[in-house]
């Protein structure tokens, strides 16, 4: 013990000697140095620190009164992942979330979490700490520091969903306005706006419907202590928005004026601990910790809580608010009704996916379509094995086409015939995405089975009829389980109020994510429609354009300029007088029909002449009735 006390004195000697003249006085005091006496509160604090394997780092400062203070204890790198509250350890835990070796969690993690940060003010260290951690690329999508108010405004305007642009909650806990009516850039409402904008930004970067369930938008605003304004309390607002849901979690945090535990030294004794305010650097570090901890808690990871990081007994406070809830998600019936009733609603599209919990088709809270989707229009009355076979055939042929396009593009780059920088960028992204998946199991395309609930020359579909057809998709997988077919790896049901193809294009283009450069030519493919040759024949028949060939070509070129492509499966002719001598209707591949069209229009179509499956929806409906 004597050695320990001498060592303690020596540390003070090394760190703090105000002048050389005081050295002799100080050495005299060493021989009479007594063991420090702790108050019960101080002892309790130290035991708590030791239990977390914390190594103390002593920091000496002087008050104006001459009182020497030993500052708060800090976590060391020897802390365990489970209990440490150090910024680096929290970042390491977050980087491990998607790894197979991640620590146990209490929820079903899909190992596909992607984070997008939008931070205004303090807290940017959360991004840098995560970005500098090995393995962070698996979870970090984008980090945005919006320090200038214009950058804040531009980001929110660009990415905030339209239905949140008018958010003005009466709840004072999530207000975005100051008392004078001006927008509060460091308010709880601002944090929620940033969170939802970041989530929408993440959805833009997601290339599958499944992936949209696991993206997280993180928003943070704060007002931290500035030099000369230590009388003010620092406020922090952190909002987390997860997946394609209407739910956000908001943390409102106020930092007390005594966040650090320090120890006054009087007459060579370490006495009762006192609390002093954190400085700006410490508050910056604290905000970053709270951001990462909030994300880990949202992911149900076993980690220190925000309360563990704060000093509640020294004046810090925190409240958590859930904004929106799962019950506020509109039902499929509600969405269908809004799309059908175009006189009373502006809703023109919805995407439904099959819930992993109960197998029901449920609408996503936002209509966001991954780039370069395969869209299969139809009445689906009922959906059947023929639809699945055609969809899978389209996926296969378009995957081959995409791989060939990328190979061709880079051959052109190597030969020096292409200098499109953005084309090179997006084709490289597409190439890297293809490398990450097993094409024998997964697809680089999202398949959307599209039903228009309105008709160009007939009354709109009844809500009950639409719901019946939607419900049939819930059992489709089990219905085809005994066949060699399976549903696409990423699929959903797309409902629209767009009966014509040009209507579909104009409706869907505003919901598409940023397109990859899926073409070596002048036109970027943005969406591919799956059709049969019977539909293709009508598309290219001047009869349906007032008997004008020019009008037909103009309509097709308008869709081409919007990035439309068609993949076509062979069908038996639907023309009643098209039967051959045997009385059988001929099988149409589409090859002859396209020959007379200009080359640029022909390139809009990818034919699958080998595909054939003859199933009558009429016969299937009769079986369902019986």
Strands, helices and their partners?
Blueprint: H1 2-15, H2 23-31, H3 40-51, E1 60-62, E2 68-70, H4 87-95, E3 114-120, H5 125-131, E4 140-145, H6 149-159, H7 188-205, H8 209-212, E5 215-223, E6 235-242, E7 248-254, E8 260-266, E9 269-276, H9 280-298, H10 306-309, E10 317-323, H11 332-340, E11 349-354, E12 361-363, E13 374-377, H12 385-415, H13 421-435, E14 447-452, H14 463-474, H15 476-479, E15 491-496, H16 501-508, E16 527-532, H17 533-539, H18 549-561, E17 564-569, E18 571-572, E19 587-588, H19 591-594, H20 599-602, E20 605-608, H21 617-625
Parallel strand pairs: 3-4, 3-5, 13-14, 13-16, 14-15, 16-17, 17-20
Antiparallel strand pairs: 1-2, 2-8, 5-6, 6-7, 7-10, 8-9, 11-12, 11-15, 18-19
Helix pairs in contact: 4-9, 5-9, 6-7, 11-14, 12-13
Within CATH, the superfamily of the largest domain carries the name: CinA-like
Which CATH class of the largest domain is shown? Alpha Beta
Helix content: 25-40%
Number of strands: 20
| Backbone shape | elongated
Beta-strand content bin: 15-25%
Write down the domain tally: 3
Main β-sheet, in a few words? 8 strands, mixed
CATH architecture of the largest domain: Alpha-Beta Complex
Indicate the mean pLDDT: 78
Largest sheet: spatial strand order? 12-11-15-14-13-16-17-20
- Do you know the CATH topology of the largest domain? Maf protein
Distance between the termini: 92 Å
Query: How much is the radius of gyration in Å?
Result: 32 Å
